[in-house]
Amino acid sequence: MSLAKLSALTGIDKGHLSRVETGKAGLSDENVLRLADALGVIPDDITHKEFT
After folding, report:
1. What 3-state DSSP class applies to 28?
2. Angle between the 29-39 and 3-10 helix axes, to the nearest 10 degrees?
3. Share of the chain above pLDDT 70, in %
4. Structural domains of the chain sorted by starting position, each given as residue range(s) with its CATH number in brackets
5. How many CB atoms neighbour CB 35 within 10 A?
6. What's the DSSP call for residue 23?
7. Is 12 exposed, middle or buried (0-12, 13-18, 19+ CB in 10 A)?
8. What residue ranges in the chain does DSSP mark as E strands?
9. Cα 17 to Cα 35: distance, rounded to the nearest angstrom
10. How far apart are CA 48 and CA 43, in angstroms?
11. Residues 10/35, Cβ–Cβ less than 8 Å
């Protein structure tokens, strides 16, 4: 999926998504939820966090 399409689906700025992709920026909890919803995954798949 292109950054432009992901930006349109999530409302997250395309430039910010690019910085996240290259490790130059992080994601807020809200944006993790937006991305997870757009990609059809659970938030843990994006953050790689495991909660016990």
Report:
1. coil
2. 110
3. 92
4. 3-47 (1.10.260.40)
5. 21
6. T
7. buried
8. none
9. 10
10. 8
11. yes
Rounded to whole angstroms, how far apart are CA atoms 10 and 34? 5
Residue type, 10: T
Specify the pTM: 0.83
Q: Which residues contact 4 (CB under 8 A, 6 or more apart)?
A: 14
Q: With both helix axes pointing from N to C terminus, report the angle between 14-21 and 3-10 in degrees, rounded to the nearest 10.
A: 120
How many helices and strands (H and E) does the chain possess? 4, 0
Q: Inform me whether the pLDDT recorded for 40 exceeds 60.
A: yes
Cα separations (Å) of 10 from 15, 34, 39, 48, 51? 13, 5, 10, 20, 25
Q: Is the pLDDT of residue 51 over 60?
A: no
The terminus-to-terminus CA distance of the chain in angstroms comes to: 32
